[in-house]
C-alpha cells in the first residue's frame, strides 16, 4: 500500500467510523421512536440465554448482558420502551446492537511528571446480525464493533500507568487513539452450539484466558487482573485471525486460534499487508466448566501461547503459560486465583500471580471486587534489576439503573518498577458506563 493510499484510507476510515457512531445513535433512536408509536404491545425483555464461549467483553456476551433485566439500586428503567422495541427489532431482523458511552478518571499520587488527573472516554457501537439459522442453535452471525476513544482537556486515563512508573496498564482502552475498528468477523455455531468457528478481524481476549472480572469496561481497572495477568503477549484488536472453540464433554472444553501479531485497530486494512509477514500469536486452552452456559463464571483452565518474532517492531518471539480458577457460589461470591509465566515475547510481566474475590451485594447486579497481584517485570522488555511490583485493588460497581453503572475504585501500588523517585502510588479512580 502506497503512502498516498494509506493517508486516503486513514481519512476515509476516520470519517466512516465517526458517521457510523453518530448515525447509529441518532438514526436507530428515531427508528425506535417511530416503531414504538405503531407497535405499543407489551414485550418482555428476554432473560440471559446460553453464553456459549467467550468472555464478558465478547460482543455476543455483552449484548446478552445489556438486554438482561437487572436488579438496580433505584429500580429505574427510563429506556424500558426502547429496550422492548430493540427486542422486537431483533426478533424481526436478527439484528442486536448496543450504543454505550464510558468515561473515567484516575487520580494517582507520586507521578513522575507531577500530573495527578487523567480523564478520557469512549463511545462504542457494537452488535451482531444472525444471517443463517436464526432462532436455532447452529447460527451463522456477523459481528461488529466500532469505537471512538478520546481524551478531554488533559492526559487520557491510559497515560496514568506510565506516569506512575508502573510496568503495566490501567484502563488502557480509555485512550485518545480516536476511531477504531475492533471487531469485524463471522461466527458459525455447529453441533448445537457446542462448536464454534470465528474468522475475521477479532480481539483474541474475547476467548483467551477469560473470567468474569477481566473487562476494563465493567471489571478491574488494573491490567494485572485482566487477560493473561499482563504476562501474555497480546496482539491489538481487529487482528486478522481464526479461532475454533468446542466442548469435548459437558464440562471439558478447548479454545484454540491464531491472529496477526502486527495488527493495528486504528488502521485495520493494513492487516491484509501485515498478515503476509507470517508473524502470529497462537494459543491453545484446555478448561473445565460446570456447564457451557456458565462459561466465564465457573471456569478452570490452562492456556498455552506463543508469539512469533516481530521483526519490524524489534520484538523477540516468546511463549508462556497461564492458569486461571474462578467459581461463583450462590450467585453472590466468586473467588479467583490466576497465575502466568512468560518467556520473552515483549510481555509486560514475566511472572504474575493474582488472587481475590467478587461479591454481589444489595441489589444483585451491584458488585464489590477485590484483588491482590504480585508481578515481576519482563527482563527482556525492560532490562534486569527492576523491583517486583505489588498491587492491591478494590472497586465497587454500582448498578444505579438499568442503563447506568458507576464504579469507584482505589489501588495501592508498591514498588512501581519504572518510577525512579517513588516506591508507591495511591490511585483513586471513577468510571461510569451508560448503555443505550
Task: Describe the structure in your own words.
α1 (3-38) crosses α3 (80-93). The chain has a single domain, classed as Porin. Strands 1-2-3-4-5-6-7-8-9-10-11-12-13-14-15-16 form a 16-stranded antiparallel beta barrel. It has six helices and 16 strands. The radius of gyration is 21 Å and the shape is globular. The chain is of the alpha+beta class and 436 residues long. β11 and β12 form a beta hairpin.
What is the gist of this entry?
The protein has a single domain (3-435), classed as Beta Barrel (Porin). α1 packs across α3. β14 and β15 form a beta hairpin.
Task: Pick out the low-confidence regions.
Answer: 1-50
Shape: globular
Number of helices: 6
The profile of the biggest β sheet is: 16 strands, antiparallel, barrel
- Reading the helices and strands in chain order gives HHHEEEHEEEEHEEEEEEHEEE
* Span of the ends, CA to CA: 38 Å
Kindly give the count of domains. 1
Question: What would CATH call the class?
Answer: Mainly Beta
Measured by DSSP, the beta-strand proportion falls in 35-45%
Number of DSSP E strands: 16
Identify the CATH architecture: Beta Barrel
- State the CATH topology: Porin
Order of strands across the widest beta sheet? 1-2-3-4-5-6-7-8-9-10-11-12-13-14-15-16
How much helix is in the residues? 10-25%
Multimeric organization:
single chain
Protein name: Carbohydrate-selective porin
Pfam family, one: OprB
Family: Belongs to the OprB family.
GO cellular component, one term: membrane
Amino acid at each position: 500500500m502506497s503512502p498516498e493510499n494509506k493517508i486516503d484510507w486513514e481519512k476515509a476510515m476516520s470519517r466512516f467510523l465517526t458517521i457510523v457512531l453518530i448515525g447509529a445513535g441518532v438514526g436507530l433512536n428515531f427508528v425506535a421512536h417511530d416503531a414504538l408509536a405503531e407497535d405499543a404491545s407489551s414485550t418482555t425483555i428476554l432473560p440471559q440465554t446460553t453464553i456459549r464461549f467467550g468472555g464478558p467483553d465478547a460482543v455476543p456476551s455483552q449484548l446478552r448482558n445489556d438486554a438482561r433485566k437487572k436488579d438496580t439500586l433505584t429500580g429505574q428503567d427510563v429506556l424500558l420502551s426502547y429496550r422492548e422495541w430493540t427486542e422486537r427489532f431483533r426478533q424481526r431482523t436478527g439484528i442486536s446492537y448496543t450504543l454505550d458511552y464510558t468515561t473515567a478518571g484516575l487520580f494517582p499520587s507520586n507521578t513522575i511528571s507531577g500530573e495527578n488527573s487523567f480523564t478520557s472516554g469512549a463511545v462504542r457501537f457494537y452488535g451482531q446480525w444472525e444471517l443463517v439459522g436464526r432462532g436455532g442453535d447452529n447460527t451463522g452471525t456477523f459481528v461488529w464493533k466500532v469505537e471512538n476513544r478520546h481524551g478531554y482537556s488533559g492526559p487520557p486515563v491510559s497515560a496514568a500507568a506510565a506516569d506512575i512508573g508502573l510496568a503495566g496498564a490501567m484502563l488502557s482502552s480509555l485512550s485518545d487513539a480516536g476511531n477504531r475498528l475492533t471487531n469485524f468477523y463471522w461466527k458459525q455455531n455447529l453441533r448445537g452450539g457446542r462448536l464454534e468457528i470465528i474468522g475475521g478481524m477479532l480481539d483474541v481476549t474475547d476467548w483467551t484466558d477469560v473470567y468474569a472480572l477481566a473487562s476494563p469496561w465493567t471489571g478491574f481497572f488494573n491490567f494485572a487482573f485482566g487477560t493473561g495477568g499482563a504476562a501474555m503477549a497480546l496482539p491489538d484488536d481487529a487482528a486478522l485471525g481464526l479461532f475454533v472453540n468446542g466442548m469435548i464433554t459437558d464440562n471439558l472444553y478447548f479454545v484454540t486460534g491464531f491472529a496477526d501479531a502486527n495488527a493495528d485497530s486504528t488502521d485495520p486494512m493494513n492487516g491484509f499487508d501485515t498478515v503476509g509477514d507470517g508473524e502470529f500469536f497462537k494459543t491453545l486452552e484446555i478448561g473445565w466448566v460446570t456447564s457451557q452456559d456458565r462459561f466465564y463464571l465457573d471456569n478452570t483452565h490452562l492456556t498455552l501461547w506463543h508469539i512469533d518474532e516481530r521483526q519490524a517492531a524489534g520484538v523477540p518471539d516468546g511463549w508462556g503459560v497461564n492458569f486461571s480458577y474462578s467459581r461463583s457460589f450462590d450467585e453472590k461470591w466468586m473467588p479467583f486465583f490466576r497465575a502466568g509465566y512468560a518467556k520473552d515475547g515483549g510481555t509486560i510481566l514475566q511472572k504474575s500471580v493474582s488472587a481475590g474475590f467478587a461479591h454481589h451485594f444489595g441489589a444483585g447486579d451491584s458488585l464489590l471486587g477485590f484483588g491482590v497481584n504480585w508481578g515481576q517485570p519482563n527482563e527482556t522488555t525492560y532490562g534486569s534489576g527492576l523491583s517486583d511490583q505489588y498491587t492491591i485493588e478494590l472497586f465497587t460497581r454500582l448498578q444505579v439503573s438499568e442503563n447506568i453503572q458507576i464504579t469507584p475504585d482505589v489501588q495501592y501500588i508498591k514498588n512501581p518498577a519504572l518510577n525512579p523517585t517513588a516506591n508507591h502510588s495511591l490511585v483513586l479512580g471513577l468510571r461510569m458506563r451508560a448503555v443505550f
